[in-house]
Protein 1
Amino acid sequence: MNVLILGSGGREHALAWKISQSKELDKLFCMSGNPGTASIATNLSGDTKYFAQIETQIRSNNINMLVVGPEVPLVDGIRDYFGAVMPELMVIGPDKKGAALEGSKDFAKEFMIRHNIPTARYKSFTSDTIHDAYRFLGTLKPPYVLKADGLAAGKGVVITDDLKDAERELSEMFEGKFDDAGHKVVIEEFLSGIELSVFILTDGVHYMILPEAKDYKRIGEHDTGLNTGGMGSVSPVPFADKSFMGKVEERIIKPTIAGLRSEGIDYCGFIFIGLMNCGGDPYVIEYNVRMGDPETESVMRRIDSDLLCHLAAAAKGELDKETIRISSSSAVTVVAVSGGYPEHYIKGFQISGLPDCSKYSDTKSLPVVFHAGTAMKDGKTVTSGGRVLAVTAMGDNIFEAGESAYKALSEINFENIYYRKDITDDLKSLCK
Ligand code: AMP
Ligand code: GLY
């Protein structure tokens, strides 16, 4: 089978790393990939926005399966496009209707209410109903949670303790702070608890639960400072025991799949459910219609079975014939970023100490460096983004895995390198 992975971050390198080990794989391509994927796949040039360009590459390289990494092409209807022009192509990712679970917070909330899926109490407003929105805010206790309805590159959620701040944010969203994404705003109750990310692969009828993970979103240690795309991840999550995951499956996963079916949404792909554990009960914070980054880096390392076989079965509606095998080892990912990220940072610094990624495919336990914001310049690997690379290590428990990730990271350097040193620290008290 020839496979194309769309995207160019750490998530896509991790997917490529896993798929490259499949016995079913003939040729692997990434568009546009990064220097990390270049060592295990063929990087194709092209803009993921232009589906016709992707189609040309798919036809000329005899590609059988398209795995869509990021959400934007899904929300823009890439599955619908290929369903019309190349129905024989296996596409991993939902159609436009299914992608609305991530593309519209309001749609996702209504979906959860329709299907009795536990989530925070909420209401949606537009600029026409701003006074109702102010009144609703007044009925809530702080912190106030405001969410731009549409995609806002992970920046569309504002949480503040101050009512005046919340009112100001609300009017700024309606005035276009997040462009069109904020024309509608969801205001919801604050859920207090510990977050985790649950991932499923589904063919629309059957589903497979992948290893769960927890990510670290804030730039500063002990979850302080600005939100980022993700500074690290761990899998498994200590509190996600059999009893908790049983509740997730019964109260959230099963009604989500049944809800999609009952609404005529033919969903084939990943669903990433962002959950809050509120006193032992799971509540949905959000749905994403793709894998998470940097969760994928940890999740892929814990899957022992052949992911490409699972994906092909999902595309054929035969996921019930597959069984996932999950490693009992733990995985920890630490992300190294350019100093200044998520605000202003300088690119173009040479990265030293990188191991040779092409040797990774036969390793089970060594740390792996997944590339994200890297580029090649004059034969050298340089920084080219905020999140530069992600180091994922394995261990008998998350603390050993964390130590190993930090040891591997200490060999790597570039000017202004920054990474959080506290990934896993918050989980120590839960593991006593
Ligand atoms: P989202 O983009 O929906 O994932 O929201 C970004 C982050 O905001 C989440 O990962 C949570 O940490 C936080 N968040 C979102 N909604 C809530 C909520 N209702 N209560 C508490 N925290 C929330
Ligand atoms: N790590 C969070 C995300 O991928 O959305």
Protein 2
Amino acid sequence: MTSITHSKSWIQLKKHHDEFSNSHMRDLFNDDPDRFDKFNLRYDDLLYDFSKNIVNENTLNLLYDVAKEAHLSDWVNTLFSGEKINFTENRAALHIALRNRSNKPILVDGKDVMPEVNAVLEKMHLFSEAIRSGKITGFTGKKFKTIVNIGIGGSDLGPAMVCNALKSYGHPDITPIFVSNVDGSDISQALEKCDPETTLFIIASKTFTTQETMTNAFSAREWLLNKLSNEDAIRHHFVAISTNESAVKAFGISTDNMFEFWDWVGGRYSLWSAIGLSIAIYIGMDNFEDLLLGAHEIDNHFKDEPLEKNIPVTLAMIGIWYINFYNYNTLSVLPYDQGLSLLPSYLQQADMESNGKFIGRDGKKVCLHTGPIVWGEAGTNGQHAFYQLIHQGTDIIPTDFIMPIKSQYRIGHDGEKHHKILFSNFVAQSRALMLGKTEDNVRAELKDSEDNKTIKEMIPHKSFEGNRPSNSFLFKELNPKSLGRLLAIYEHKVFVQGIIWNINSFDQWGVEYGKQIASLVLPVLDQNKQTDSFDSSTDNLINYFNKNT
Ligand code: G6Q
């Protein structure tokens, strides 16, 4: 495919950018009282306000034209059809099948995957209910109280984020714990909180070979054996989620206790699969199915709505506008909900592992910026940390503000005070970023309290350029369905951007290289030898470690 940069719409967009990029949103709002009406989209109770972006109708139209010239609709059909869109791994990318609540057949290699998807969901249903009710117990007959999910990356971030987000739906007597880091402090600190008789370990690994996960799993196994002194306890306290049946058996977990998924489920897209077992146990299968339903609704919206009414497409194309035309290469995700505090990390993986690539689908180096650096923190905490740079730094950081209208909790004298304060901050930040504060504003603010000399000195420090873009998402409440919707919006946004950049968003070869080198270093540490086989920095770091260990 010829680079999108040669397309008619891209060239027009470039010209439009040259003419329009000096516009200030303050003026755009002043000039058009209906600006919000033109630049928002809704899905049920979810409101997506994109009016605080440096765009006008022409910008949006040209961006949608770019999507058309990139044949986005064909690619969406390819994604949903089960074709092997992840061509470097010869796999489909069918997370949409995992939440296909319509149950319409989806074919991979001519075979409908839905019966298998439904069978695993049913197995998860029976198992999660039995754990929740106490029908399945530990080796000594006690109910499970702690669920330890051992996994990393895609086998950790999704379930951890969702369980954290939906705590108010959690089983009152069950605590989920997530262990991911091979740093022994992670599993050690987790085990300190566990009673071996009431702890269920879920070993979540697509490959069942990931070094961190397997090291943590074997340490947990050893801990349990030491405590319960009986090999038989393993099969009562360990279950596996994997595509690798033989490795699961070799670990000592019977296939009855194995929850399967498939190579067409990418790690970072896997929370909808059996990888979500910890979620199903914690919040119950009905709620897990609502999460799937929310995502399925957005899958339909994404597939069926025209580009101009399509939330993931609009979000994606506005991102393209900043990354490729303004060179704003980071994105800050700012959820105003403490439950969503892990969302920035989750989206960091979803976006950066998918689109952090410099090679196009044609095997050639791409000629434009691809995936942004994604980061963030829950509001209002971030306001007291890094927002300074967002407001007055030399880099412009597009931001996504996300907030549920109702809190999952009622606290304070009227039960709503906290949430009103939270919302006032949510809306104040995006307004301040958009509007800025002019020198005249500062002068007027200071005139009664400061002398002229001080005012003159302070004006540059206290003024804000503004024109800093943001998207705002508001929805009624954070619940399984609304969370499913939100996550699917971002998944599809990442997909759309990958199509515009002509990259494969579903592989992750960059993760492999460091692992290869680590496997060469480990034997040198095991033998505690001095080495000169790497480079002088690496050799000396290894030698220093070995000498002091
Ligand atoms: C995600 C990545 C990666 C993966 C982990 C864990 O898309 O592939 O984050 O999820 O490396 O892999 P396993 O599930 O195979 O242990």
